[in-house]
Design a protein that fits this description.
CATH class of the largest domain: Mainly Beta
Oligomer: single chain
Number of domains: 2
Largest sheet: 8 strands, antiparallel, barrel
CATH architecture of the largest domain: Beta Barrel
Helix content: 40-55%
Strand order of the largest sheet: 6-7-8-9-10-11-12-13
Strand content: 25-35%
Order of helices and strands: HHEHEEEEEEEEEEEHE
Structural class: alpha+beta
Length: 402
């Protein structure tokens, strides 16, 4: 708009300049009143035109100045725009480069993922193969250890069995006798033994399924003045060297059973208790002759807890009714149950001798044989006869306290 006004002002300026020049062409005319008026008006008009011309010149000068300012600003804007366009071009180029890099990296990532998956699959297969081989190695090593252990065990048993036979034969040769049972209760001169607990080796020869067999072990004999408790540990069998063996109390033997009991007072019997050759303990048993009751315990075993002989009443001993004895239950702190029986020996009940049976095989002990287990007839939840642990014991009475 300002450029348009500038062009109009320029045209008007040129026109006015032309009119002024044409009006003054004839200065020789004589002056007249009308001419003077006209001259005054012309002069006034020229003055006004001059004033207007000056205004237009001023406006024109201002417009030109503004035009120059606008042109300068336009140059600056164009220069800035050129910079922006250059920066945009560089950014676009950088973006394209980054997109290409992203594409390359994605392809590399895909390749690495595939390589990792393949490696993991291979590792899984190798791991499974290693686990299978390790398990097979462990199985073979276990079998090897078992064979070595069993071989060493059988060798040890054979050595012990041979030493046992050698010892028994030497003992029998000294006594000048042989029988199908060598050593043990049946050929041992019990009367020649001192009072106390004795362990005597024996070897038995018997027929099994029509074939000869040999078994060996140890007799455990506890001798007192009036009574004997005899146990037998069957440890070796020629037909089964890996057999578990068994232990049972064969019998208690006495020369004199008590026929008349004291009628009053309390007394404590002290002596020994045992099961197999490796477990020996003590007996403590208290009897009240007035109330005809008794109770006690078997204690001080190695690796076996105390066995409580619960209170029982004195009655006739054994099935034939000869002598006196006590039958009652037995118990342990862990809840294991059992039973016991004893008899009085000597003219004035100087001794007791008996046996106890626990209704399970205790740790570190030998179980009883099948016949003894059936005698007590205790069964587990499946109805099988339990083969528990049996003890023998005997003791001598102290002074009767009245």
């Amino acid at each position: 708009m300002k450029l348009k006004n500038l062009s109009v002002a320029t045209a008007l300026l040129l026109a006015l300049t032309g009119c002024g020049s044409s009006g003054g062409g004839n200065n020789n005319r004589p002056a007249t009143p009308n001419n003077e008026i006209k001259n005054n008006q012309t002069t006034q008009n020229q003055t006004n035109q001059q004033i207007e011309l000056n205004k237009i010149k001023s406006q024109l000068s201002q417009s030109q100045s503004e035009k120059q300012s606008i042109e300068e600003k336009l140059k600056q804007v164009n220069a800035e725009l050129a910079k922006k366009q250059q920066a945009l071009s560089q950014s676009t180029k950088s973006l394209q480069q980054q997109q290409e890099q992203i594409k390359v990296l994605q392809q590399e990532k895909t390749r690495l993922d595939q390589a990792i998956a393949q490696a993991q699959s291979s590792n899984t297969q190798k791991t499974q193969e290693i686990e299978m081989l390790t398990a097979e190695k462990a199985r073979v090593e276990s079998e090897l250890n078992n064979v070595v252990e069993n071989t060493a065990k059988q060798k040890q048993i054979l050595n012990e069995f041979n030493e046992l036979i050698k010892t028994v034969v030497e003992n029998e040769q000294e006594q000048g006798r042989y029988s199908n049972t060598i050593g043990g209760h049946y050929t041992t001169d019990i009367d020649s033994l001192n009072n106390g607990l004795h362990t005597i080796p024996f070897v038995m020869m018997y027929s099994e399924d029509g074939e000869g067999a040999v078994a060996g072990g140890y007799s455990t004999i506890y001798k007192q003045n009036y009574s004997i408790v005899y146990g037998r540990e069957m440890k070796f069998y020629s037909s089964d060297l890996d057999g578990f063996g068994n232990y049972r109390i064969e019998r208690f033997v006495s020369g004199d059973k008590t026929t008349t009991l004291p009628s009053e007072g309390n007394a404590t019997y002290r002596g020994k208790a045992f099961t197999s050759t490796t477990h020996k303990g003590d007996l403590t048993y208290n009897v009240n002759f007035a109330t005809r009751t008794g109770s006690g315990k078997l204690s001080n075993f190695n690796a076996i807890d105390d066995i409580h002989l619960d209170e029982g009443r004195i009655g006739r001993a054994n099935h034939n009714g000869q002598g006196f004895g006590i039958e009652s239950s037995a118990s342990m702190a862990d809840g294991t149950k059992g039973e016991y029986e004893l008899a009085f020996y000597g003219p004035n009940a100087e001794e007791i001798a008996g046996k106890a049976y626990m209704y399970k095989q205790l740790d570190n002990t030998m179980r009883v044989n099948g016949g003894t287990a059936r005698e007590y007839n205790q069964k587990d939840e499946q109805g099988n006869v339990i083969r528990g642990t049996q003890f023998g014991f005997g003791g001598t009475r102290g002074e009767i306290q009245k």
